[in-house]
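Subject: for your reference before the review

Hello V.,

The reviewers asked for a structural picture of the protein, and I figured it would be easier to keep everything in one thread rather than splitting it across files. Below is the amino acid sequence we used in the manuscript, unchanged from the supplementary table.
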Amino acid sequence: MVVSDSDASGGEQEQDGAGQKPESPSRPVTAAARRERRATARPAGKSAARADDKTRPAGKSGEKTAPDAKGAPTPKRDQKPKKASVFARLVRFIREVWAELRKVIWPNRKQMVTYTIVVLVFVVFMVGLVSVLDLAFKWGIGKIFG
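And here is what came back from the structure prediction:
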């Protein structure tokens, strides 16, 4: 076994019978080489079909394709961004509320009856406690000032 100084991983590599290293790709050193290697290692699925589609722009999906997008000045801090119309904000609000309501785990009938009984018992208990305290304070004030 021979240890190579040029091996990026620091491990050992075996030589074949002819004294040459086996053909194994070394780790890319630059970021561009890593990106290229990742691009060639991707499976041929939906992303490959999209890559072959020539109707899509060459940049990333989130990139602006306008030629002056990179040269646009940074907006001033005291300038407020434009708000959407009232109708658009209302529609967005309703959409977000609807999305949150879909996440709710709704109770079944048995749970609903149980929760209702628990709440009613608690309310009756609190009304009784406040009534007893009210009568006690009324009696105490009557004895002191009456």
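For the response letter, the relevant points are probably these. Helices lie at 31-41, 46-52, 86-103, 109-145. The mean pLDDT is 77.

Happy to draft the paragraph if you're swamped.

O.
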